[in-house]
Design goal:
binds ligand PBG, 337 residues, TIM Barrel, Aldolase_TIM, zinc ion binding, 10 strands
Length: 337
């Protein structure tokens, strides 16, 4: 027999539905709000002029040459999106085993930063600090003869890359490589070079996720990586405690913000990190998450606007202060409607 708190047939004392009945009271008790201020727009940059390429596994996302990227930056500014994150698509002939193109002062990322800061100086620019677009094998670092990604040798290159981004005018450098000690090394080098205002967004809890597939297509590292994987440096999806350890280290080394990546499958990590540390916490709604929602929407199986806004509010509710999402311009437009 089911036991009821109130005798059968008596009235419920608390009717949760009273507050849900009307729009005004639903609005009054709404705990989480989403605004364009919460968004970071990740965008792929190409060589050339007037170049615009679709990414097949991410319908609606394009790789843009710098001149068109500047137009997108103006659009971000108009939409009230605070920041953009740049991901360069490096031509095969510029890739190498030592990834030296990563710190070329006139490299694609560095030129893109200068062009945007010149045209739209108020827009925050975030650069990706990692070597995968620049290595012939698609790993995020330098490798030894056995293919193992070398830690300290890679950190030396990441430092040079981060400094070249700061010199180009990047507001935030975002190491997404998962080498040990890179935040401390980059922070020390930035300070020594006088870049005391350059913020570090540390990809602290970055999981070895299969949701990155479309991104690797977009930057062209998928073919290079082949059947390789990133298990020796990115985190095991089975682990949660380890994310706390990672975040603690990155904060101790001088990170200003931390990132959890991917987003929706890792909301438990977002909540734990936010509760434990209370620091600016970002979450990356990654390429595979975009692709899933886009594909289902294009098939008419999900209502795109409704489901994307729900995904966004879920990440905020979990504790994220900012969300990197390929849906950023869509979301900003929907919020303005
Ligand atoms: C690599 C990098 C990746 C992403 C951002 N930076 C892919 C990877 O680690 O292989 C993935 C982003 C996405 O899937 O949207 N440094």
């Amino acid at each position: 027999m089911i036991q009821f708190d109130t005798p059968r047939g008596a009235y419920p004392v608390t009717r949760m539905r009273r507050m849900r009945r009307d729009d005004f009271s639903r609005r009054l008790m709404r705990e989480t709000v989403l605004t364009p201020d919460d968004l970071i727009w990740p965008i792929f940059v190409l060589e050339g002029k007037g170049q615009r390429e679709a990414v097949p596994s991410m319908p609606g996302v394009e790789r843009l040459s710098i001149d068109l990227l500047v137009e997108a930056a103006r659009e971000a500014q108009r939409l009230g999106i605070p920041a953009m994150a740049l991901f360069p698509v490096i031509p095969m002939e510029a890739k190498s085993l030592d990834a030296r193109e990563a710190y070329n002062p006139d490299g694609l990322a560095q030129r893109a930063v200068r062009a945007i800061k010149n045209a739209v100086p108020e827009l925050g620019i975030i650069t990706d600090v990692a070597l995968d677009p620049f290595t012939t094998h698609g790993q995020d670092g330098l490798i030894d003869d056995a293919g193992y990604v070398l830690n300290d040798e890679t950190v030396d290159v990441l430092v040079r890359q981060a400094i070249s981004h700061a010199e180009a005018g990047a507001d935030i450098v975002a190491p997404s490589d998962m080498m040990d000690g890179r935040i401390g090394a980059i922070r020390a080098a930035l300070e020594a070079a006088g870049h005391i205002h350059t913020r570090i967004l540390a990809y602290s809890a970055k999981y070895a996720s299969s949701y990155y597939g479309p991104f690797r297509d977009a930057v062209g590292s998928a073919a290079n990586l082949g059947s390789g994987n990133k298990y020796t440096y990115q985190m095991d999806p089975a682990n949660a405690e380890e994310s706390i350890h990672e975040v603690a280290l990155d904060l101790a080394e001088g990170a200003d913000m931390v990132m959890i990546k991917p987003g929706m499958p890792y909301l438990d990590i977002v909540r734990r990190v936010k509760d434990q540390f209370g620091v600016p916490t970002c979450v990356y709604h990654v390429s595979g998450e975009y692709a899933m929602l886009k594909a289902a929407s294009q098939n008419g199986w999900l209502n795109e606007k409704a489901v994307v806004l729900e995904a966004m509010i879920s990440m905020k509710r979990a504790g994220a202060d900012a969300i990197l999402t390929y849906y950023a311009p869509y979301v900003a437009r929907w919020l303005a409607e």
